[in-house]
Amino acid sequence: EVQLVQSGAEVKKPGESLKISCKGSGYSFTTYWIGWVRQMPGKGLEWMGIVYPGDSDTRYGPSFQGQVTLSVDKSSSTAYLQWSSLKASDTATYYCARRSRWGGDFGMDVWGQGTTVTVSS
Amino acid sequence: EIVMTQSPATLSLSPGERATLSCRASQSISGTHLSWYQHKPGQAPRLLIYGASTRATGIPARFSGSGSGTDFTLTISSLQPEDFAVYFCQQDSYLPYSFGQGTKLEIK
Predict the structure, then answer these.
(1) Using one digit for the tens of pLDDT, what is the confidence trace for B12-46?
(2) Are A85 and A15 in contact (CB under 8 A)?
(3) Which of A47, A56, A65, A121 is 20 to 30 A removed from B103 (C-alpha atoms)?
(4) Quick check: B45 and A97 CB within 8 A?
(5) Do B50 and A106 touch (CB under 8 A)?
(6) Residues from chain B contacting residue A52 (CB–CB below 8 Å)
(7) Residue A63: closest CA among chain B residues belongs to which residue?
(8) What is the pLDDT of residues A30-59, one digit of tens each?
(9) Over the stretch A71-88, which tens digit does the pLDDT of each residue have?
(10) Is the preceding omega at residue B8 within 30 degrees of 0, hence cis?
(11) Candidates B33, B97, B104, partner chain A, best to mutate (most A CBs within 10 A)
(12) Residue A108 and residue B37: Cα distance in Å, rounded?
């Protein structure tokens, strides 16, 4: 079964660091882009960025450039999203998703279950 | 940066009715890079349509997508109780990839 499994919920204080994970299985992890999506409480979906596990090519949305770091570990088929200094405004649910291609068509067809991050003093 | 605008923000309909959701891009995009997602509370988003008009695996035929350039539409031909959710369109034609703000489909 093709799946992405994310790490569990986190409760952190402002200023702390955090790294959450997204482990792929059931497919060739290195040949599909992995995107990250934020959903703040009561809000819509925001595209954060995308990483290609094959060569770690990474692109960020302008609101997230410099605020988070995307990375991958090919050996464990895991993608990561990390913060060096969390803010209360980082409180959200974060999803990873696989970007697939069917001929010339694209879409995010496999999603992780989401990781809820709560940042509060 | 391409802005995706969905309308209406909320759509109130009854089961059995037809739903038409709109998504407009701030500039022309390739239809091959337009997808629709269904999102229910506490669940991960689910891909419904990719390439503007192709149903994803396992998606019922009552869901259809159309459009090109800047205007795209998701149609649900006859609403079932499980279809009441939030729907998002997304473009990944140009970086940064972007979502619409969503249309909430609620039971009337």
Answers:
(1) 999 999 999 999 999 999 888 999 999 999 999 99
(2) yes
(3) A65
(4) yes
(5) yes
(6) none
(7) B96
(8) 999 999 999 999 999 999 999 999 999 999
(9) 999 999 999 999 999 999
(10) yes
(11) B97
(12) 9
